Amino acid sequence: MPHANDPLLVISPHLDDAVFSCGAAIAGAPDSIVCTVLAGVPHNALVTDWDAQCGLTDAHQAMHARRAEDAAALDVLGARPIHLGFLDSQYAGDSPASHDEIVAALLDVIRATACRALVVPLGLFHSDHDLVHRACREAWLADRTLACLAYEDALYRRMDGLVQTRLADLAACGIIATPVSERIDTAALARHQGAKQRAVSRYISQLKAFGPNGYDDVFATERFWSLQTARHDR
Ligand SMILES: [Zn+2]
Fold first, then answer.
1. Separation of 232 CA from ligand 1 center, angstroms?
2. Pfam families under this entry (predicted)?
3. Is 185 contained in some domain?
4. How many angstroms is it from 233 CA to the middle of ligand 1?
5. Which domain CATH number covers 114?
6. Is 100 among the domain residues?
7. What angle (nearest 5°) sits at the alpha carbon of residue 78, between those of residues 74 and 83?
8. What is the CA(17)–ligand 1 centre distance, in A?
9. Number of structural domains in the chain
10. Residue 1 resides in a domain
11. Based on the number of CB atoms within 10 Å of its own CB, is 141 exposed (0-12), middle (13-18) or buried (19 or more)?
12. d(CA 38, CA 94)
C-alpha cells in the first residue's frame, strides 16, 4: 500500500472522471499525475448531442476546451495532466481506440513515472470506462512495480449492481479487491473537499450538460479498492 501523501498516477477515461471520482485523494497527494486516456482531438469537427448540451460548437472546440478545463482543475489540486491521444467513443466512429495500443501507452506512462501508486477506474457502465479499466488491468499485471488501487467511477457507481458486478469479474480473473479505509483526519478531509469543489467547478462545459443536481454524487465519499493477485505474490 502506498503511504499517505505519496504521489499518485491516476488514470482517467475522460477529461473529468479522475477529479470527479478521486479529487480529494489527489489533493492529499501533492505532485500526482492524472493521465487521461481518451483525450484525443478527432480530425473531423463533428457535432455530437453531448457536446451541444455542453454548449460547445464542435469536437475541435470541445476537446480543446476540455483539455484546458482539466489543466485548470488539476492546477487547483497540485497535480499535473498527461493527455493521451485516443478518441472518446462519441468521436471514434468505426475506428474505436485499440485495447492493445492503450495498454502500450499506459506502460510507457507507468515506466516513466516516479509515482508510487497506480490508481485506475473500476470501469463502470460506459464502454469507454470499461475499455480503459481493462487496459489498466493488463498494464498493471504486465508491470507490477506500482501498487494498484481502483476507484469507483463517480455517478456510475450509484447504478444498481455495477460495483458488485465488477468485483465479481475481478475475482473471476484472480484479482482480489479489498476496500481501502479512509485514513486522513477530518480537518484534512474538509480541506481536500474544498479543493475538490474548486477543481470540479473548472469543468464548466461538462457541468452545464449534467445540470444543477446531475452530479451530486461527485461530492460523496470517494471509495477505493486495493487490487492484488490471488496468488499473494506481492
Ligand atoms: Zn467518463
1. 32
2. PIG-L
3. yes
4. 32
5. 3.40.50.10320
6. yes
7. 40
8. 5
9. 1
10. no
11. middle
12. 16
